[in-house]
């Protein structure tokens, strides 16, 4: 998900086989990891690298389009082993290990179109190899600096574009060496002619969607703390609301909760995802989410709002706020009991959602302003819109 206003859409998942056995690594590093600075990051990642045992098979396959570790098959049996488990050690998230003037050079592993033919626009799932040097937590973002110079500042590089990370800290390869992004290609159409105007297309989203395996990419970050997944209470309730590529951080949450075998963490609460997209072909990671629904019916709920295929109770288009209203009594009760609620997507989603929540609160005889203030005070309210 991009935090620029031009990058927004939806995706469906692509299944491409299971390489778990090839991607498990053995680590013997016992020292604790610190994320306080880039230098400390470099020291612990270098130490880990000396102790890591990798397979030549995995390395040979790393930069091929056939290696896309987002397969639903990975959830078909027991949970997936992850490494290095030292990524669980730090008490605070890594922040700004690499900055715009000193960015990290990563490599593209794969770029996959992940929407069907009837989806408006194109969305890609992009896997990036950072070789363990740019660790992050679920809910954080990477900055991407596209190649070329800034047209508004000749001689200077482009500005950083932020994208929410769509994988867990272990990446789609489960080895702590990759990160994934969910990117909508931003294309501009002239309102008068209806034709595409490439000069006004999104620079970074098109660069990412056009990338090839092995291409270099300049990364900054990681950044952000507002969307971090609270894990002190393994039985907590997490209500996740997204439009389009705003589902990116939730994919990371859900893989951590339901797909990965994370040491000393067993989720026993409720994760409830509300996803708003245009149509069925626009659904994001639907196979993954549907598998969780089948395997963990007591811990996962999944509600979709398809604006071009469904009608709300008033006969209008079905948007995500209509689904929220449908379950409003239950949502309010969960919030009263300490549930966390997250919002991610275009900033235009929030006014409609806020209006719905305010109306429901008033119908319940509550003050929405007072309730919202309390949710923020209790750190139950998490918003990242763009």
TrEMBL record:
PROSITE patterns: FAD_FR (PS51384)
GO MF annotation, one: ferredoxin-NADP+ reductase activity
UniProt entry tagged with the keyword DNA-binding: no
Sorted UniProt keywords: Chloroplast, Electron transport, FAD, Flavoprotein, NADP, Oxidoreductase, Photosynthesis, Plastid, Transit peptide, Transport
Superkingdom of the source species: Eukaryota
GO CC entries: chloroplast
Presence of the UniProt keyword Transit peptide in the record: yes
EC number: 1.18.1.2
CDD domains to which the protein is assigned, alphabetical: CYPOR_like_FNR
Substrates-to-products reaction catalysed: 2 reduced [2Fe-2S]-[ferredoxin] + NADP(+) + H(+) = 2 oxidized [2Fe-2S]-[ferredoxin] + NADPH
CC cofactor: FAD
A Pfam family it matches: NAD_binding_1
Transmembrane segments: none
Single GO BP term: photosynthesis
Chain ranges of the FAD-binding FR-type domain: 101-229
Residue numbers binding NADP(+): 164, 184, 245, 307-308, 317, 345-346, 384
Location of the protein in the cell: Plastid, Chloroplast
Family: Belongs to the ferredoxin--NADP reductase type 1 family.
Stated name of the protein: Ferredoxin--NADP reductase, chloroplastic
Species this chain originates from: Thlaspi arvense (Field penny-cress)
């Amino acid at each position: 998900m991009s935090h620029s206003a031009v990058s927004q859409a939806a995706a469906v998942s692509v299944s491409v086989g299971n390489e778990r056995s090839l991607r498990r690594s053995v680590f013997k590093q016992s020292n604790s990891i610190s994320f306080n600075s880039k230098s400390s990051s470099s020291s612990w990642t270098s130490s880990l690298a000396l102790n890591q045992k990798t397979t030549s098979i995995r390395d040979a396959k790393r930069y091929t389009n056939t290696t896309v570790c987002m397969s639903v098959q990975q959830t078909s049996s027991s949970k997936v082993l992850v490494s290095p488990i030292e990524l669980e050690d730090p008490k605070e998230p890594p922040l700004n290990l690499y900055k715009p003037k000193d960015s990290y050079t990563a490599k593209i592993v794969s770029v996959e179109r992940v929407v069907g033919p009837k989806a408006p626009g194109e969305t890609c799932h992009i896997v990036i190899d950072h070789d363990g040097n740019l660790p992050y937590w679920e809910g954080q973002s990477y900055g991407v600096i596209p190649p070329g110079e800034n047209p508004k500042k000749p001689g200077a590089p482009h500005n950083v574009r932020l994208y929410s990370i769509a994988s867990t800290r272990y990446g789609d390869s489960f080895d702590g060496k990759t990160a994934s992004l969910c990117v909508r290609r931003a294309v501009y159409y002239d309102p008068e002619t209806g034709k595409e105007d490439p000069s006004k297309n999104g620079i970074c989203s098109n660069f990412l969607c056009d990338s090839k395996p092995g291409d270099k990419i300049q990364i900054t970050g990681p950044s952000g703390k507002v969307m971090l997944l609270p894990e002190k209470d393994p039985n907590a309730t997490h209500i996740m609301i997204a439009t389009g590529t705003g589902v990116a951080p939730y994919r990371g949450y859900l893989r951590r909760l339901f797909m990965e075998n994370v040491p000393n963490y067993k989720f026993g609460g409720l994760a409830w995802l509300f996803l708003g997209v245009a149509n069925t072909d626009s659904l994001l990671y639907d196979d993954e989410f549907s598998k969780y629904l089948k395997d963990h019916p007591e811990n996962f709920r999944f509600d979709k709002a398809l604006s071009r295929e469904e009608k709300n109770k008033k006969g209008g288009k079905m948007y995500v706020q209509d689904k929220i209203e449908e379950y409003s009594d239950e949502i309010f009760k969960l919030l009263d009991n300490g549930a966390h609620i997250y919002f991610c997507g275009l900033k235009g989603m929030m006014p409609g959602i806020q209006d719905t929540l305010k109306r429901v609160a008033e119908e319940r005889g509550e003050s929405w302003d007072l309730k919202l203030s309390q949710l923020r005070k209790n750190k139950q309210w998490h918003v990242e819109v763009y």
